[in-house]
Structures are given as structure tokens and as C-alpha cells.
Amino acid sequence: MLKASFKKYTLNFNFPAGTSRGVLQQKDSWFIILSIDNLKNGIGECGLLKGLSFDDKPGYEDKIQEVCAEINTTQKYDLQKLVEFPSIRFGLEMAFLDLQSKLERILFPSNFAEGKDSININGLVWMGEFDFMLKQIREKIEKGFSCIKLKIGAIDFEKEILLIHSIRKEFSETDIEIRVDANGAFSPKEALEKLKRLAEYDLHSIEQPIKQGQWEEMAKLCEGTPLPIALDEELIGIFEKKKKEELLNQIKPQYIILKPSLVGGFAVSEEWIELAEQNNIGWWVTSALESNIGLSAISQWTYKLGNKMPQGLGTGQLYTNNFESPLIITNGQLNYLPSITWNLLNLFG
């Protein structure tokens, strides 16, 4: 008999993680746990980002409780009913995949999941004071990352330019790929000039230079930009396939970024990828600050897609109380080492 339950878990950051939307100290996740006759568990993470997730609204936990109650009564659940709850839809999709898997926490068997191959990832540099950001940059380079992503838009723009200049003084674009993420921090009026300044440093791309929802302004930027633009937050809340096509056709970005927790899971992300490729738009995958449980599932799925670009999957070391897992980062590569066992006592204890 199929049984569904859930548990809320609060993840604590190692440091105050700065974004243009504020500083993060903690992050809540809800874990849906499916079991058959109490013999096998399938776990899915519903990772909510306050102020960003479409389903960040009153009654979120009540919705998870309602989903579990329906599963316990009917022994099934139609994911389509969770269209407007993308993080819950993703968590439930993950839990069912895990329940059906032959090996514990192996949702997508592959050379990656067997420890025979790795995923190239970017090193994430969080916003903060100049010295704090510079320290992070040096640490990432020393740890062997060939791609660095900087969160920008919180400190003075000239100081951010100085940070990027300090990298380029020592490392060319063939040595270190630099991506920047503005999280919508620029105004439409100033954005193009700032993109021109940033483009002088041979950057790979910029994520979401202006706030989402300004399709006309973003389309103008993507048409005239000297620096490739990647849409991130722009994808949130776009559920219908026709609307997705409309967004891509109007804005014509150079890239889109998929966060399964924010767009509604693996199947929904693959629909975005298919539409992007039809329009010659590049893409890559980024985690949305999930625990190692969600990160592992996303990483396994990402490897299956075969995209060789650096992915945004290096967030597993952010928390003091993350779950021990086989995920290990070495020389800018994410590895899954089956010899390391999962420790989920914090979740089941």
C-alpha cells in the first residue's frame, strides 16, 4: 500500500548569502516521503525560495498536506493538478521517480551516478563587501574552477567592475569563464550601458539584467546587447506551452536557465529545453538552493541531458546542516561517489 507523508526541514547557511533581493540566513524545504508497505522510501524535495517561487503564498504547507492525503486515499496523484505549485510538483515528481528506482536515491542511472564521470560546474561567488567577494573568487580559482559566476547588483557597480578587472588581469577568457547574475538589479534605462561596460571583460553571459515581466524592454536588450543574456526569473510563472513559445519568440534571449524547483520539475524543464533548441537558444541547469537530496536528483537528470557547459550545481556546501551524501566537488567538477552512503537521520530521526 502506498503511503505519503511530509516533513519540513530548515537549512542553515554557512554565511550570510547576499543576493539583490536580500541576505539569506536560512532556507526551508519540505520533503514528501512516499513508501510502499513501509519497505521502500521515495523522497522528493519541495524547495521554496521566499519572494521568488511562484508558489510562495499562504497555504503552501496545507497544499502539501492535501496532496499527501489524496495519495493516501486514492493511491495516486495527477501532477498536472500542481501546475501553479511548481516546487511541490517537482518534489512529488522526484519522490515518485525515487520510489520507482532500483537503487536508493538513483533516479537516473548513468556513468555519473556510478562514479565513472563528473559534471563541469561553475563556482558561485555571493554578493557582499568587496574584500569578501574577492576572497571567494580567489578560493574558487585555487580550487580548480574554470568557470566563475558572480552575483552582482548589490554593491557599487564600479567596485563590481573592479572585481571583474582583477580577475581578467590574471586570467584570460580561455583560462577562466566569467558569468554574472544581476537578479534583475538593473533598470531598463541603465542596463545597456552597464552591459557594454561588462562586455569589455570578455564575459560569457549575464543572467536576468532587468526584472522579469518587462518583455518589450528585455527583447530590446537581447537584440542590441554586446553580452549574451540568459533568462532566469523570466521563466517563473509561465505554465502554458503557448505562453512559453510566445516568451521565447518575443524576447529571443541567447540562453535560458532551468531551475526545476522554480519551473515545475524535470518534464516541464525538458519542454523548455525543447522549445529553446527549436529557436537556437542555448541553456544550462542551475539548482535553486536545494539540499543535497534535491541537488543529487537534479545533477543526475542534468548529466542525462548531455550538456557539456558548466552547470550551476555547486550549492551543496552552502549549509551547516545539509544531509551527508555521495556528492563531492573536486577541481570544479561535481562527482557522485557511490562508496559514500547517504545519512538522512536528520530527516527520519
> Mean pLDDT, as a whole number?
94
Described by the principal axes of the CA atoms, the overall outline is: globular
CATH topology of the largest domain: TIM Barrel
Main CATH class of the largest domain: Alpha Beta
Task: Domain count, please report it.
Answer: 2
Instruction: Describe the main β-sheet briefly.
Output: 7 strands, parallel
Report the end-to-end length measured between terminal Cα atoms.
23 Å
Q: How many strand segments?
A: 13
The helix fraction, in percent, is: 25-40%
The ordered H/E elements are EEEHHEEHEHEHEHEHEHHEHEEH
Explained architecture:
It contains 11 helices and 13 strands. It has 349 residues and is of the alpha/beta class. Helix 3 runs parallel beside helix 4 (157-170) and helix 7 packs across helix 9 (266-278). The chain is globular and about 60 Å long. 36% of the residues lie in helices and 22% in strands. It folds into 2 domains: 2-100, Enolase-like, domain 1 (2-Layer Sandwich); 119-348, Alpha-Beta Barrel (TIM Barrel). The strands form 3 sheets. A 7-stranded parallel β-sheet has the order 5-6-7-8-9-10-11. A 3-stranded antiparallel β-sheet has the order 1-2-3. It has a 3-stranded antiparallel β-sheet with strand order 4-13-12. The two termini are 23 Å apart. Helix 3 (130-142) links the parallel strand 5 and strand 6.
